[in-house]
């Protein structure tokens, strides 16, 4: 490996990826494992996570699982205690998990609003806090949050989700200022339209699918694996002087008029 390429290596790092059971989270986990990290896969389906971890290990890479609901504060704290006991550290957090409910605000109950905020925003703070506890003693770490282009631009019928993503963007920047003096960077990735399971309903509607594809500068939806490069960059030494940044990965959707 050329010396410069080594700056992208994650060898010896421990990375927790939430929502790693499918979609973008899974692609990020696979890429980080392939770059040398020991990846800890989070999700709520332990059996699925175990199968995925086994497939990663079958490739000679390192993986384990941490099945818990990020909205369950007790389970979350216990999971980080286990990471400390098992690995002694955490180098990378990828806060990827998120819920989506596309409908007009008038159709939301108060409980539905609170539930979406708890999963998408409050859990992000809890995950970052517990990750920071493990990163502060080593004065190094990478906090990576998956937001959305919905944190930059608005779409009718998506007010609650968009608001949570705006909140995460604020969190990312605030934590960059708070933890920068301790060698911990805080950045975000804002995906555009990716062909994932979460977007299956949109992809199955020809009119909607075509609308989002043609709106992007590249004229298509993103492939899930195309998120991996941005995550590896922000997790590696190659991004050591970047913090408080939101890296948009949307095929140019937010820049095309």
TrEMBL record:
Q: Which SMART domains match?
A: PKS_KR (SM00822)
Q: Which InterPro entries match?
A: KR_dom (IPR057326), NAD(P)-bd_dom_sf (IPR036291), Sc_DH/Rdtase_CS (IPR020904), SDR (IPR050259), SDR_fam (IPR002347)
Alphabetized Pfam families for the sequence: adh_short_C2 (PF13561)
Q: Which SUPFAM superfamilies match?
A: NAD(P)-binding Rossmann-fold domains (SSF51735)
Record domain Ketoreductase: where: 13-192
Q: Name one GO biological process term.
A: monocarboxylic acid metabolic process
- Give the record's family classification: Belongs to the short-chain dehydrogenases/reductases (SDR) family.
Write the protein's name. Answer: SDR family oxidoreductase
Q: What does the record give as the organism's lineage?
A: Bacteria, Pseudomonadati, Pseudomonadota, Alphaproteobacteria, Hyphomicrobiales
């Amino acid at each position: 490996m050329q010396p410069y390429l080594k700056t992208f290596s994650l060898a010896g790092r421990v990375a927790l990826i939430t929502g790693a059971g499918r979609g973008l989270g899974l692609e990020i986990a696979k890429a980080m494992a392939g770059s040398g990290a020991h990846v800890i896969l989070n999700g709520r389906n332990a059996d699925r996570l175990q199968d995925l971890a086994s497939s990663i290990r079958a490739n000679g890479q390192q993986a384990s699982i941490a099945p818990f609901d990020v909205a369950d504060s007790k389970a979350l704290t216990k999971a980080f205690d286990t990471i400390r006991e098992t690995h002694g550290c955490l180098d990378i957090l990828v806060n990827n998990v998120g819920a989506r409910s596309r409908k007009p605000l008038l159709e939301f109950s108060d409980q539905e609003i609170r539930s979406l905020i708890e999963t998408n925003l409050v859990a992000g703070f809890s995950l970052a806090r517990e990750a920071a506890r493990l990163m502060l003693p080593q004065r190094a770490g990478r906090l990576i949050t998956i937001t959305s282009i919905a944190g930059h631009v608005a779409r009718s019928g998506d007010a609650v989700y968009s608001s949570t993503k705006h909140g995460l963007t604020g969190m990312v920047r605030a934590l960059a200022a708070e933890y920068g003096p301790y060698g911990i960077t805080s950045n975000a990735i804002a995906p555009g339209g990716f062909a994932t399971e979460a977007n299956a309903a949109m992809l199955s509607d020809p009119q909607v699918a075509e609308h989002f594809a043609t709106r992007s500068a590249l004229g298509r939806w993103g492939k899930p694996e195309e998120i991996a490069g941005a995550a590896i960059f922000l997790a590696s030494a190659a991004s050591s002087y970047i913090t408080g940044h939101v890296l948009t990965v949307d095929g140019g959707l937010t820049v095309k008029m």
